[in-house]
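Quick one - first record:
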Amino acid sequence: MEQSNEVSQLFTQLLALLGLQVETYSTLHLTLALGVLLTLSWLSFVISGFILRNAIHRIIERSKNNWDDELHRHGFFRRLSHIAPAILLYLVTPLFLHEAHPLLIIIVKLSLIYLLFSLFFAANSVLDTASGIYNASPLARKAPITGFIQVVKLLLTIVAILLIISNLLDKSPLLLLSGLGAVTAVMLLVFKDAILGFVAGIQIAANRMVTNGDWIEMSKYGADGTVLEVGLTTVKVQNWDNTITTIPTYALITESIRNWRGMEESPGRRFKRSIYIDVHSIKFCDKDMLDKFKEIRYIKAYVQKKVDELAKFHQDNDITEADLLNARRMTNIGTFRAYMVEYLRQHPKINKDLTLMVRQLAPTELGVPLEIYCFSSEKSWVAYEGIQSDLFDHFLAMLPLFELRAYQRVGDR
């Protein structure tokens, strides 16, 4: 009170020296005092901004740490420079104005609100920095924290709103908190997605269900691509056509989802595709065919082994080749299947440590399926599709050599 009167009188005397005769707390006096306060605030903002944004920026450029660069990139020091004028207004205004003056009350409340906003946005910059540094680390692939960062931001927002309201109403924040019980039901409705997303986020992080960078499929939402961000309420997925699909976070634990992470972390990516053989092209191998097959490097040993095995069987059981009922003979489809298996075993891009087979499935109206079941050592999409295409190009081109035909439905002409 005494300091306020002394500063006010001193300010009035200073104005008198400048040739301005004004009464203390008159309209002109208040206008000039407000102008001085705003000028001081602006100067404090400029000085603090210069120190925090320019001087510290040069220090950051010389620093080898990454966290200070992230703080600068997210505007932490720029937002921090707003604290100085807010504090100056709060501390200096009572020296110029009487404590009961309405203008003092307004400026003090506004300065507190200004300070709260500055601290709030500075805290958000710190959280963004922590999120950016964490997401750039290998740990982000195991447990994303974007959802938890958003929860902290939501809590900070609620706290800031409560403090601002309590400042405007001159009520204790605890008194406002005690009144929240009456609107709990409304808040549950308003923050339903946030609450569900928070619970889902805990389960997702604990069980490593989905992380940033995973390839997921959710046909219900039209999502098929890479997870960009697992947020508090939504998950962003960039599809392969570069469109963005947003999925409710809680849907990841309540609905079916296919995550390809297991494939990406495994030693191979599966091939599972069939060639349909025309039934009418399947037949027994005669001597000329067997002689021709013996010239094929991959199955030369196989053919000779089968010929010797069948010859021994016929000799042991006194069976001649003319005995069509009891004689055993090789087929072109069986020999082709053996060729496919051996070709896959020799292929440099096929993982030999995982399951590798060519199996004959039940005949259908489209023919007899020969299914290739093996794993590519290349898991990237482009390389994987290239290897698969090369394999089937080769097998389809080899069919005539085994006197087989691929089935192709011919429409009415």
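second record:
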Amino acid sequence: MKRKSLLLLPFLLVACAPVAETSKTEQRLNELEIRVAKLEEKQEEINLKLEEINKRIDLLTEEVGRLKLANVSRRYEEKPKIGEEKPVVVQEPVEDEKIAYEEALSLFNEGKLIEARDAFLEFLKKFEPNKYTDNAYFWLGKIYYELGKTEKAKQIFNALIKKCEEGELPDCNKLPDTYFMLVKMAIDEGDVATANKYLSLMEEKFPQSEATQRAKALLYKEP
């Protein structure tokens, strides 16, 4: 009986081998199917994102086209007809002028006198006279004063006064403060006569100015 069992064992092993191999193959196929399914899902997500991007590009293209068309139409409408004079438009200072002035003033307020000086000089060199020009001259003179270069400060302040008197600047709101600085420098030097001369001009030109009152208080203060 044992001999028969031993004879049957090889046949049983051979018969079981294909079954085990088939099971492994099916497992691998299942794994591959799962991977393929995941890849298909990712591809679908990518396709949806690409579709959304294409829609946005189309919208942007349409918007650019509308803006170009509107710009062309505006230029055509602004173009004067033959024999018709184009209206004179008073332009406000461009944003670059304002930004440049504010950046220079910010440097001064931070105590960076050399950087502020260079920034104001560049501003005056780069831009045509505008509503910030007199302020730029004033702060430039103030910077030279604080740097101890009083003669250079006087030159700047007197140049500002001259430009305002000759109508070269559109705005001269810093003129009273400019005269005040000249009064102050004259007092610093002990030149009371010159200080009184500038104060008299201030009382004549800006009698109600706060700068005039400060100059009076500075000149006539009790020792």
